[in-house]
């Protein structure tokens, strides 16, 4: 008699653990058994070992690994709906920035907000993702741009993970932008990030990774290398906002440092993408930003496929360029805008999204891995990419517990 804690049966499974020709790893009329927060058994219901564990009848639902949103900025003060309205009426980004808008309006609002206010604003954003089957989410700092505010954002992210049945991974993105009027400009601010912010985030345990924005309007490759070297010295892995607006060699730079991921990649070269694949980095695609800013340049998905590069999908939830609060919508946009296949899109919010966070213990339904599940009332997995709007999620399991 098997000593399972709980059994889920009468379900169809998309394990994300299949061979290259059938990567979704479909098991119809399947079952999953858990023990101690991990998957103990998965397979056909007819093959389920004898047990005396409590049973949940999934009533024919499809079960996937818990979804992973691997790139968000969901802790921030205020919003920029007013700027959105101004742009629709003809104002340019430059005009809005000169009037005090843009990212620095988010910085001002975030600095001014209390920790409690930031937590209160972020809770419904995270709960919306959870309602769609998300069990793991990454949250970046980057709207503080001073030591106190960056740490405040990371503390809020940690509090979100403690308050809700979801795992939160944090990334320090102090190298997001240079604060306006910062004496010495980008070079001096990079010094500050390297000498003060990264060591503080590492010493307090508030950051799981370090991110940076390598772009002409942000930080040069040389400055980004300094940030990454400091992260490495602090024992933290790195991620990179890379090649979003131009090809500065961000993909190759990320590869040189063994980055968990490089994200955006609209202008990344084929050589950079091949370097990422060789380094084991994941390409995180962010179609919400492409849609919202009406970007005509798309990531070179064909080159990514040719390189054997793993691709993830994420919301990039942020107040400026991707106010996207639905990971399921990103599945649709990833397929329609970037021409991902259904399998690529679903792997992109499960197995490959987990890899983009360095989490090898989830994203796949396999014995020994974490028992994070998402249940959907659909007829086939493709419906998660097909429908525009709506939410067919009917349940989540986090570390073996329904929640």
TrEMBL record:
Boundaries of every Amidohydrolase-related domain copy: 62-376
Catalysis: reaction(s): 4-imidazolone-5-propanoate + H2O = N-formimidoyl-L-glutamate
EC primary class: hydrolase
Protein role: Catalyzes the hydrolytic cleavage of the carbon-nitrogen bond in imidazolone-5-propanoate to yield N-formimidoyl-L-glutamate. It is the third step in the universal histidine degradation pathway.
Family as reported in the entry's similarity comment: Belongs to the metallo-dependent hydrolases superfamily. HutI family.
This protein's encoding gene: hutI
Positions annotated to bind 4-imidazolone-5-propanoate: 80, 143, 176, 244, 321
Compartments, record wording: Cytoplasm
Lineage, uppermost ranks: Bacteria, Pseudomonadati, Pseudomonadota, Alphaproteobacteria, Acetobacterales
Protein name: Imidazolonepropionase
Metabolic or biological pathway, per its Swiss-Prot or TrEMBL entry: Amino-acid degradation; L-histidine degradation into L-glutamate; N-formimidoyl-L-glutamate from L-histidine: step 3/3
CDD domains: Imidazolone-5PH
UniProt cofactor(s): Zn(2+); Fe(3+)
Keywords carried by this UniProt record: Cytoplasm, Histidine metabolism, Hydrolase, Iron, Metal-binding, Zinc
Cofactor annotation comment: Binds 1 zinc or iron ion per subunit.
GO biological process: L-histidine catabolic process to glutamate and formamide; L-histidine catabolic process to glutamate and formate
Chain sites annotated for binding N-formimidoyl-L-glutamate: 143, 318, 320
Binding sites annotated in the UniProt record for Fe(3+): 71, 73, 241, 316
């Amino acid at each position: 008699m098997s000593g399972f804690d709980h059994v889920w049966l009468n379900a169809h499974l998309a394990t994300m653990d299949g061979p290259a020709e059938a990567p979704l790893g479909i098991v119809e009329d399947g079952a999953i058994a858990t023990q101690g927060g991990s998957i103990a058994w998965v397979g056909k219901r007819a093959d389920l070992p004898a047990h005396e564990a409590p049973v949940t009848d999934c009533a024919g639902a499809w079960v996937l690994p818990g979804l992973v949103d691997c790139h968000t900025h969901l802790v921030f003060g205020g919003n920029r709906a007013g700027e959105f309205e101004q742009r629709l009426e003809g104002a340019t980004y430059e005009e809005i920035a000169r009037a005090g808008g843009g990212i620095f309006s988010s910085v001002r609002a975030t600095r001014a907000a209390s920790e409690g206010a930031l937590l209160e604003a972020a809770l419904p954003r995270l709960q919306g993702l959870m309602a769609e089957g998300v069990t793991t989410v990454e949250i970046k700092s980057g709207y503080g741009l001073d030591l106190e505010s960056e740490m405040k954002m990371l503390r809020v992210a940690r509090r979100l993970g403690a308050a809700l049945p979801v795992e939160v991974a944090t990334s320090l993105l102090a190298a997001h932008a240079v604060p306006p009027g910062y004496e010495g400009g980008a070079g001096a601010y990079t010094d500050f990030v390297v000498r003060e912010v990264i060591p503080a985030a590492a010493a307090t345990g508030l950051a799981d990774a370090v991110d940076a924005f390598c772009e002409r309007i942000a930080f040069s490759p040389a400055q980004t290398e300094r940030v990454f070297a400091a992260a490495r010295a602090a024992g933290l892995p790195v991620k990179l906002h890379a090649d979003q607006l131009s090809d500065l060699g961000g993909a190759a730079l990320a590869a040189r440092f063994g980055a968990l991921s490089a994200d955006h990649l609209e202008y990344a070269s084929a050589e950079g993408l091949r370097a990422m694949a060789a380094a084991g980095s994941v390409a995180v695609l962010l179609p919400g930003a492409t849609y919202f800013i009406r970007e005509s340049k798309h990531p070179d998905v064909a080159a990514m496929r040719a390189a054997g590069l793993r691709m993830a999908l994420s919301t990039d939830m942020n107040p400026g360029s991707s106010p996207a609060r639905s990971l399921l919508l990103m599945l649709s946009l990833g397929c329609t805008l970037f021409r991902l296949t259904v399998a690529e899109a679903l792997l992109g919010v499960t197995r490959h999204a987990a890899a983009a966070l360095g989490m090898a213990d989830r994203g796949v339904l396999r014995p020994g891995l974490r028992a994070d599940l998402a249940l959907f009332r659909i007829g086939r997995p493709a419906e998660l990419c097909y429908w525009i709007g709506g939410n067919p999620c009917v349940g989540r399991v986090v570390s073996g517990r329904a929640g």
